[in-house]
Amino acid sequence: MPLAKPVLSVRDLTVAFGGTGKPVPVVRGISFDVFANEVFCIVGESGSGKSVTSLAVSGLLPETADVSGSIVIGDTEIVGASAAVLRHVRSQDLGFIFQDPATTLNPVLRVGRQIVEGEVTHGRLRPSEAQVRAAELLREVDIADPVSRAQQYPHQFSGGMRQRAVIAMAMAGKPRLIIADEPTTALDVTVQAQVLSLLQRRQAETAAAVILITHDLGVVAEIAHRVAVMYAGRIVETGTVDEIFSSPRHPYTRALLRSIPRGDAVHARLDAIPGQPPTPETLPAGCPFHPRCVIGKERGECRTTEPLLRPIGADQQAACHFAEEKLLPAEARRTDFSGPAGEKAGDSLLEVDALKVHFPVRAGILKRVVGWVRAVDGVSLTVRVGETVSLVGESGCGKTTTARTIMGLVPATGGDVRFEGRSLLKLSSSRMREARRQMQYVFQDPYAALNPVLPVEEVVAEPLRLHGLYETAGGAARIAELFEMVGLSRRMFGRYPSEFSGGQRQRIGIARALALNPRLLILDEPVSALDVSIQAQVLNLLQDLQKELKLAYLFISHNLSVVQHMSDRVAVMYLGRIVEQAARDEIYRTPTHPYTQSLLSAAPVPDPTLGRTRRRIILEGEIPNPAAPPAGCTFHPRCFRSDEHCRRVAPSVVSYPGASIYVACHHPSDPMIPSIVREQSMEAGE
Amino acid sequence: MIGYVLRRLLHLIPVLLLGSAAVWAIIYAVPGDPVSVLVGENATAEQIAAATAKYGLDRPALVQYADWLWRALHGDLGTSIHASEPVLKLILERLPATFQLAFLATIVALVLGIPVAIASALKPGSWVDRILSLWNALTLGVPTFWLGILLILWFSVEMRWLPSASTYIPLWEDPVAALRSLILPAVTLGVYVSGVLARFLRASLVNEMRSDYVRTARSKGLWEWQVVGVHILRNALLPFVTIVGLMMANFIGGAVVTEAVFTYPGLGRLLIQAISTRDYPLIQGCIIVIMVIYILINLSVDVFYAYIDPRIEYK
Amino acid sequence: MKLTFGKLSAFGRALLRHKGAAAALAFLSVVALVAAFADFMPFDPFRQRLVDALKGPSQAHWFGTDELGRDIFARVVYGARTSLTTAAGAVAIAAAVGVPMGLVSGFFGGWRDAALMRFVDVMMTLPAILFAMALIAILGRSQIAAIVAVGITGIPSFARITRAQTLTLRSRDFVVAVEAFGGSARYNMFRTILPNSWSPILVQVVVLCSVAILLEAALAFLGVGVAPPTPSWGEMLRSGKSYLHEAPYYAVLPGLILTLTILSFDALGRAMADLLGERYEIRKSGSEGAA
Amino acid sequence: IPGHVRAQKLQGTPLRVAILADMTNFDPMQFSLVNFHLIKNLYDSLIEYTADGKAVPSLATEWKIGEGNKSVRVTLRKDVLFHSGAPLTSADVAATLKKASDPAKGKNVYATMGIVQDWTMPDEHTIVINFKAPVPERQILDLLQFTMPIEAAGIDTVETKPAGTGAYTLAGRAVGQSVTLKANPKYWRTGEPVSPEIRFTVFSDDAAASAALESGAADIIYGGGARSAVRLRDAGYTVTRGPGPLVQVFRINTTRPPFNNEKFRQAFNYLMDRDGILRVGYAGLGEPVALPWAPASPASNPAYLKEFAYNLDKAKALLAESGLSKQEMSNWKLLVYGTDQPTVVISQIVQSTLAEVGINIQLDVLEGSEYVKAQLAGDYSATFGGVGNVQKFPSRVATNSIYRTKDNPVLKEPHPFPDYVAAIERVNSTYGSEEKVKAAYDHLNRVLVTSAFAIPTNSYDVGLIVSSSKLDGFTPDMDNLFVARTIGLKK
Ligand SMILES: Nc1ncnc2c1ncn2[C@@H]1O[C@H](COP(=O)(O)OP(=O)(O)OP(=O)(O)O)[C@@H](O)[C@H]1O
Ligand SMILES: Nc1ncnc2c1ncn2[C@@H]1O[C@H](COP(=O)(O)OP(=O)(O)OP(=O)(O)O)[C@@H](O)[C@H]1O
Ligand SMILES: [Mg+2]
Ligand SMILES: [Mg+2]
User: Fold this and answer.
1) Given CB atoms, is B262 within the 8 Å cutoff of chain C?
2) C touches A (3+ CB pairs < 8 Å)?
3) A92 interface with B at CB cutoff 8 Å
4) Which of A313, A496, A577, C267 could form an S-S bond across to C24 if both were Cys, CB 3.0 to 4.6 Å?
5) Which family does it belong to (chain B) (predicted)?
């Protein structure tokens, strides 16, 4: 491969954004080649310059960007090229897939037209043939009924279909290079699996070179041939996917790999990278990673000299002064951690019993209720003192609604919620206020959860003040204590939320939730908006707090690895119902419900060797509209085991004697027989 | 869609009821009555009483309102006290003049507004944009009555090119005379509205230009004119339609000041005269008609919008 | 940028650095100062000298004299007082009524919202100027009447903006959070949502100032503003318009000052909207201005 | 010069007349500005006055005042036809008088009919009107001049359908926009009307009408403002002023303090800067007056103007005599008719004059009907308002609200100025000897300035005619109504 001429060759690419002040470099001299028939992944945390690099390659950066270096696609130099040349390159050699399929298509033009527009413009396609060609392209990306779909508008497509259409569009001209910038970040795991496999297939069919940008190491392991790891505008390490995952040489790569929760180390404490990634404006001198680095922190060289990328192995390069240094074995550095375990569970704290939450759908002249969105349709759960119960499921399955209903923020339609044995649903508002003190909520989006006009001290004090307990609880001293508890300094009191990073804000959110000394925290996707390194910090914090304060968690997430890492028990939700519920290890080792099995197999595993060997179940379609759920078992249209019976009759919950599993399926695989799918992964992991 | 239109029409009912009741309440709160103007200043008490009875103004206010409402429901807006002609007739006679001015003003506004918006949105922050923004601020900030006065000063008093006051001449009868008479008020109104439109369109263009689909379009190697003309403009013009409709609707009763400057016989002036003579049925009629037209224009705009925007399906 | 008390001074400095805003502020301050201290200046807006009627601008009378021989410049200066106080009063009324209205309707929805929206509908379908005229007819011509009339026509714009803001904030996590901690609706509306809505409200205040000045002038121009001989810019334009042939400066010069004032408010409003990242409400409040 | 003689020098042409307000009805008794332009073209009166007040025949060929001034015998022309084609008879005149004496239908003629007892019709073309008491000749003539026969059959519908004998017939009307009249082919005056058609177009204001005239879209402006008339005159247009102006009167409600103080009131005789008021308010078109009479009125007396010339010193002396404090003197508002620009201006002049003598008052500006209502009800301390009929028999002034001797809405009952009531009575009952009559008029004038409940300032023109210089043949009308029948293009 290295002998062939690269499709793309980037040399010393530097991009700075000027604006009014002095230009700030966000990409700082990077070089790489991409060859035909390979998938080249760029990974890195948010803000590391991945998107800017990809935009620079296609000449799509805004005019405020100052680009230098060289980018050659085929034989054409992109840097400084004229508009005509750029247009030509884009039409001939380049295809682009962007992150958010909801916005990459023009909402007012028909999908078919958009797909072939480029080809028609460049005279490769006669307008009279456009329709046929559009349908053909849609068929190639597995869209059913492509002829009529081509005539539809983007809003009539589901998210996954849109991304397929974008792939069809990007590949329409058979470009030599395809750039996909986080093509699946906005999608659910099951849909992500569909799209990734499609992308892989089309790439193989067209022999194109693909640059795939992602921050998800699982995706990298799944799909990449070669990998570049970016940090603070630089490539800090590059190599084949196996090298990167098996013998990472840069401390950042290593730390990154260790900070993701993995099924093979559920009892170990996560290895978080301390601190924050630097912003382009606040780049430290020397190696930009040294303030967070375990080996470079103390060394003078790292503080003064920025290391250059240099070859380490055959194909591997790393930018570290001490890349050859053997590290301590990873395990040794992990402080032992007794993760959650079923045994310690005590009395039941929260009981959710057949909870139903239906939202009215209104239509017609008088806005009458014409139907109901069955957001939550019979959920039963128990959380015991000090344990973590997780709720997983695809987007829209009703996780947030369940949590908010438990908190009393959304009125329940039916069922019951009991806290310490007392029903919460029929409480008067003052009693409800009282009850809420025991139960607190941590929100998903750390940017939206804090009142931006209050100083953080007030944000944390607010629950106390609302309950008139501020003085009783100890006033400012209590706030300082809470700050300390979540690892923040009281020196930060006067600052506003906007002055904090996402991870810090999430800590503030947690501190606020702890202010009233609750017994139960409801954590709604507490880490999904955070970068992996920060995510690990927060997860560790949560585990520490749980131990220290004997907290019970209702932990909501769609990230199966995180759930596996955190939970005692796991409930899998689909379309408003819990389809399977079991102790953590049981569910991961022997998933019973076909949906659980699909979910687990769809989740990318950050291990390329395993990725290549395991068999994946790729679910068809996407989660149905909860306003019109399918009859019978709601999962049947996507299920690989469904039959006539499933189509008609909704399954009831079955429990297995001797196991903690509850499952709602007519055809569960026997929990006593370990699932083949998962077993493989476990082996590979060990 | 039909259901949607029906629902919107149903919405008309409370708005009109509320509006007419409010107008009636206001009318009764306003001191003065139509009779005093009518009978003249030498009238005796008996004459006043006779006239008051003749127009039914001696009945309780609620009875009068109920009576008016009942008749209005049957399409009868009553008879003007001052002109002793059916209110509807008076209004219908003014409407063509009003529509003609609104139409021309809208054309002026579009002709001035759209190019300005596109030119300044193409390069936000450039000197072209800054100059056009300044022009835009001027069009918005210069009060129509002052602009009208300046135009009259220059074109009528100074240059003697155009009449200083406008009359209604139907366009189809004598287009030249009609345009001569209308051009100053149409420009006065149109310039102001062009500012509103340009500002709106510029904002929505700039907003659209940042959209992902524009980057997608560029990444396909399209010509810049395709990107702007097909992709951006289409999206930006959608909400623009609503604003244009709103503006037109506003012209119907709201061009009062311009009508006053150019003494143009539009609906707004009719209403002002009606207010000053306390011609109750005429006031009520004008306001109801203005409201109905406003709502109907808005409804048409929304329906049209739904028609051109594939994302919207009114049910 | 989110406007907080902590950032008030930073916001002020940013405004002063903004060229357009600084110029506008400078002009407005001059107008405001002159209006405030007009009493200490050596001219009298009421003093008539019929023999000096309709004399052009001169050393003695910078803007000339009107039909009663009064100094137009003096009247412009006192007119500023009328304009600015009317605008301030009107905006205060509009905000004081509109903001709580928007909060309540956006927060609770339901019948409260429906009622508000009907009110706004009615107000929207009637051009502001007609509405104001009718109100003034009730209240009689006076400055108070003008303030109330202009103020009421401004209510829907505040209500709408606050409502929209409330609707977006209502479902934001930090508002839900307060609810989750047991905060009451009142607390949420006035302590959480309102402080987060200052920026659009502030921008709207400035926008409405220009609208109010315009509307007041338009009313005076139509002959229903403050009663003579109180100096008012619109009234001067009205009288001046009938002397276009003999004394063009009579309408032109007061109109110029009026226009500059409106432009300044507009520029200030836009600069603030820019700095605060708010949408500049384009539809003003339906005064013809305006149309 | 008789009309037909002049007509020979003129050529008929369709006339385009700009007017400022739409008509409201065709009733010749609803004598108000809104149908001034129509009445004299659709109707004829029994007699007419020349510009200097001499009575000349019109529909009546002869009128004989009976013994003791208690009746008048009127002989009608025999060749007169209504627009319907029916001949004019004494029955039509009788029906007209009947309508005029009905309080609900008599409208503006009703007050004038107050002197009439009854009438008889000796034959088809003669009618005898009997009076309640002896009536001065001039008052009888006013009645005849005011009587415009309406066809008996059309009396009930006259508001919407003209039923007269006038030189023009109604051809069409677009409400709010225009009225078109066509020449009456069977008109009894030979050679008239000169022009075959008149089209009245309603313009919303003076500026619009002026613009129409200047751009050639109109030939005549009828009823425009003084200021634009003066400007147009300077630009070469012809301005025709009639003998029937109004007099602007500063009306005082003597029932309210401080105006219940006579000296205080009298000071106002000297506080009116009549020249300034005339110049600023009416562009100098009119005369300053101290009495409510036009020059054509028999009671007119220019000496008063000298006596009561603008004089702050005399005014101050009277104010001092009044014994009122500054505070008391300032404690009232001047009601202003905001719709009428001249009164707004002159009210400010008065306000400023008062400020000079230390009286600081406020203006209370009301619009449209609100003002009229206040004025009719006497709900004011003082206000400016025009008074009509000032060219006719002096006691006609008493039809105006402030000058009314009975049921005065401002001064209320009983009339606070018995001297004035008596003076009017004396004018009404004095006839015969010119000296006696003159003395009665003098007495009235003196009483007026002494009681000082109404301070006239100036006369001003209603029904001003501004026309293209190509037109000629304007007939002055005693009431400044528009008379179109003699107008034509100069040959
Ligand atoms: N148009 C721009 N103007 C100024 N700075 C920019 C611009 N685009 C990106 N940046 C800055 O460049 C840096 C790198 O951004 P980039 O979008 O490449 O990050 P990324 O690695 O793609 O992150 P993410 O995972 O969040 O997409 C960031 O600090 C960003 O703020
Ligand atoms: N207030 C509401 N009115 C109507 N439908 C609602 C409402 N809130 C939620 N829904 C619907 O209920 C369903 C479940 O939503 P919910 O937010 O609970 O999902 P989720 O599992 O938390 O998804 P995500 O992973 O995207 O956060 C969705 O289809 C959503 O559209
Ligand atoms: Mg990115
Ligand atoms: Mg959720």
Assistant:
1) no
2) yes
3) yes
4) C267
5) Belongs to the binding-protein-dependent transport system permease family.
Q: Tens digit of pLDDT for each residue in D363-417?
A: 998 877 788 888 888 899 999 999 988 888 888 888 888 999 988 889 988 899 9
Question: Which residues have a Cβ under 8 Å from the Cβ of C192 and sit 6 or more positions away?
Answer: A451, C169, C174, C175, C178, C183
ipTM topping 0.85: no
d(CA D324, CA B263): 48
How many angstroms separate the CA atoms of A460 and B181, rounded?
A: 68
Architecture of the domain spanning C5-38+62-279: Orthogonal Bundle (1.10)
- At D14, list the tokens: 């369709």
Instruction: Check whether the bond before D258 is cis (ω within 30° of 0).
Output: yes
Is A66 touching ligand 1 by the criterion CB < 6 Å?
Answer: no
Shared-domain flag, residues A583 and A554 = no
Q: How far apart are CA A187 and CA A99, in angstroms?
A: 9
8 Å CB contact of C6 and A443: no
B46 Cβ under 8 Å from any chain A Cβ: no
Q: How many CB atoms lie under 10 A from the CB of residue D172?
A: 10
B307 at A interface, C-beta within 8 A: no
User: What is the model's pTM?
Assistant: 0.83
Q: Whose CA is closest to atom 24 on ligand 2?
A: A395
Check B221 against A105: CB less than 8 A apart.
Answer: no
Assess if residue A471 is contained within a domain. Answer: yes
Last residue of a domain, one of A224, A258, A276: A224
Report DSSP letters for B259-290, one per residue. HHHTT---HHHHHHHHHHHT-HHHHHHHHHHH
Of A181, A201, A224, at which residue does a domain stop? A224
Contacts of B4 (CB under 8 A, 6+ apart): B303, B306, B314, B315
- Whole-angstrom distance between the N-terminal and C-terminal Cα of chain B? 6
Percent of chain C as helix, strand, coil, to the nearest 5 = 75, 0, 25
Which regions in chain A score pLDDT beneath 50? 1-2, 329-343, 674-686
For A313, residues 6+ apart whose C-beta sits below 8 A from its C-beta are: A239, A243, A247, A249
Chains B and D touch (3+ CB pairs under 8 A): yes
Report chain B's mean pLDDT, rounded to a whole number. Answer: 84
Domain count, chain A: 4
Contact C223 D370 (CB under 8 A): no
Same-domain check for residues A470 and A554: yes
Best of D213, D231, D280, D310 to mutate (most C CBs within 10 Å, chain C)? D280
The amino acid at residue D252 is: I
- Chain A residues whose CB is inside 8 A of the B218 CB are 60, 90
**A213 within some domain:** yes
Say if residue A158 is exposed, middle or buried (CB neighbours under 10 Å; 0-12, 13-18, 19+): middle
Q: Is the peptide bond before D245 cis (omega within 30 degrees of 0)?
A: no
Q: Which other chains touch chain B, taking contact as 3+ CB pairs less than 8 Å apart?
A: A, C, D
pLDDT, tens digit (0-9, with 9 covering 90-100), for C61-110 = 889 898 888 999 999 999 999 999 999 999 999 999 999 999 999 999 88
Q: In terms of Cα–Cα distance, which of D173, D166, D186, D7 is closest to D79? A: D186
- What residue segments make up the domains of chain C, in order of their start? 5-38+62-279
Does the distance separating the beta carbons of B150 and C255 come in below 8 Å?
yes
Give the dihedral sign, CA A365/A371/A373/A376. Answer: positive
**Tell me: the pLDDT tens digits for D433-482?**
889 999 999 999 999 999 999 999 999 998 999 999 999 989 999 889 99
Mean pLDDT, residues B50-72 taken together: 82
In terms of domains, do A57 and A89 share one?
yes
Residues D396 and D145: their CA atoms lie apart, in Å, by: 13
A239 is a domain residue: yes
One domain for residues A197 and A247? no
Residue numbers of the domain that contains A423: 340-527+546-561
